[in-house]
Amino acid sequence: MVEQIFAFDREVFLWFNGWHADFMDPLIAIITNRFTWIPLYLLLVFLLFKKYRQDSWIWVIVIGLTILLADQIASGLLKPWVARLRPSHEPLLEGLVHIVGGRGGTYGFVSSHSSNSFAIALIVWKMLGKLYPWTKWMFLWAALVAYSRIYVGVHYPLDIIGGALVGLFAAWISFEIGVLLSKKFGKLQYDGGQL
To answer: What are the residue boundaries of the Phosphatidic acid phosphatase type 2/haloperoxidase domain, all occurrences included (predicted)?
Structure first.
């Protein structure tokens, strides 16, 4: 049963990875690079400070906790435990995978990029969504970053889906901790969630 799922996942991966064009490679390489998004992160931190003022420290801790949880569950726990080869390392796919940039580490389940992106999308939307409705588009950004990992040949679709679920879980847990911290230590009370 597991092998049938993995075989289907490989087929879906090859279909999506096959949607490539030479002119798109540099653009996708920029999208998949974590450093590309530093201006976005700085904007979000600015908006966070603008909204929560003296309680911003609570929500900065929550963001840090969110990213730490998402990344450690994905890379520290699941990748070595599941030990599923990335498509770029899979002998069955040798010569079939369009790789842009490096091949990545040996194991790919779950995608840290997907986990971190979806974690950031949910936590930002929960913290800022009432004041800035456009933050719902962060989920589209997360999906684009996640898809870029298939395009560059280093993750299967199940790696992406698993990463997204890990990220959403990490953001949900962290957000609930943030609400508790806000109630206990904050000068401004949290003004309600989005879900």
So the answer is: 60-175
